[in-house]
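Box 3.1. Reading complex inputs
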Amino acid sequence: MTDPIWSNIFKIPGEIETIALLKKVPIFDLLDFLKLRKLVRFLHQRDYRADEIIFRENEPGESLYVIKSGRVRIFSRKDDGTERELAVLEAGSFFGEVSLVDEAPRSAFAVATEDTRLLGLFRADLLRLVDRDPRLASQILFRLASVIARRLRFANHTVPRRETHVD
Amino acid sequence: MSTKTGPLFTPFQKLLIYLASFILGCVVVSYFARILMPFVVGLIVAYLLTPLVDRMESWLGGRLRAVALLYLAVTAVLVGVGSFVFRPMVNQFVALVRSLPGYLNSVQHLIVTSFGTLEAKFPILLEYHVLDQLQAQMGMVAKESIHALPGFLVSSMSLITYLLLVPLIVFLFLIEGPELKRKMLRLVPNKYFEMTIYMMYSIGSQIGRYLWGLIVEAAAVAGLSISAFFVVGLEYPIILGVLAGVANTIPYVGPVLAALPPILIFYLKMNTLDAVYLMVAVVIGLQIVDNLLIKPFVYSKSVDLPPLFVIFVLLVGGTIGGVGGLVCAVPIAGALRLAVIHVSEDIRFRLSLNSPEGRKIIGGVP
């Protein structure tokens, strides 16, 4: 049982859980407790039912999502209608981060496979953060660039190279 | 493979939608204008102060502390400025309102003299009593305008209500605003959430820039006008300069409305045409400085509305909300336009999913 005298009964349990979750996300892992607490106020918690679409391919994209609970399936659809599964993400994972900096449409579908709770960081809120707390915003943007660069390097290693013949 | 269709609405349909939404909004607002106006004013002031409060919150580590400090600072500035500016301004306003009937008589005398000269040159005007009827009409309009002027300026809400209610509303919006916004956003379905966030941001950015631009421009024009009126020796320079600054925020008609009182009052004081020429030159000079120097630096984007629509919007805004309505009408219309654009783009995307190409993409996903 929690000791009412010694334990911190003034902290909001949900907020602590969220901060602990964000600490595990590579984009936010270098932020301290106070900065994460500030960041939480810019996040939007959204609940999705099983099989509910989070976003569709070619839809305008504006946000990064962190999975607080549940599971999300990422897939793309070919011209013949068949699906190509790209990833199945669980609690603690994140997706959609490229749309924070890129205005291109979404490149895949994201669907909740069970009741899922997501934390969304939207580009509009990130731009507001740039204005209100430039130091925090620049730390997030730097880590975001680092994550995207790492994904690009990984893609370079795994995508088979095509040889071209020059006549 | 593209799933995009053509434009959802033709330009004419878009114009009809803007008009319909604006008229509907005005009908609703006009019913509740008396109750809503302090909240609208409070919301606008809170919106403009929110970026500053957010920064202060990050320095001070608490929103209540930030708002309290801001209120202390604003009170100190108002008390300091009030004793130098507000009192003479209020005194001049009262004196000007008291002098208006006298000015009206002088203008009537001027009109009678001018019309007499015209009738002597063109006897046909005397035969058909054209100028007598015109003079009677002008007299009626001038009397009604003067009687309606104080009510127009304060838009049928007492000044005390504004002075007491608005600071309280601003305080509450500043403290509770972010959480209130999050609670309202929770009501938006997931399907429309991203669009809503983006729409709120783009409307907010545009309105924020426009309003700050208006305030800076009004202050700059008021300052320049007061200085110019002092230099030429015009009576009531502070109140006429402030009126010039406020009136200048109204597109198209504002500068003209702002120019008439100084020209008239200066002419009646000096009683020469040279006075008119001088005051016209001063007013034109102020407009040149405003349009060539102040506006380009202050405004980064306009609300991008057709001029005819702006005039219509101003007529509606002035009828509903007086001076406040004239100032707010254009940014509100701009916000509605952005809302229609975002919603129609979202609808277009969703309709594109019903096209044959779209169905291939979404397949059996619910």
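In summary: The two ends of chain B are 22 Å apart (CA to CA).
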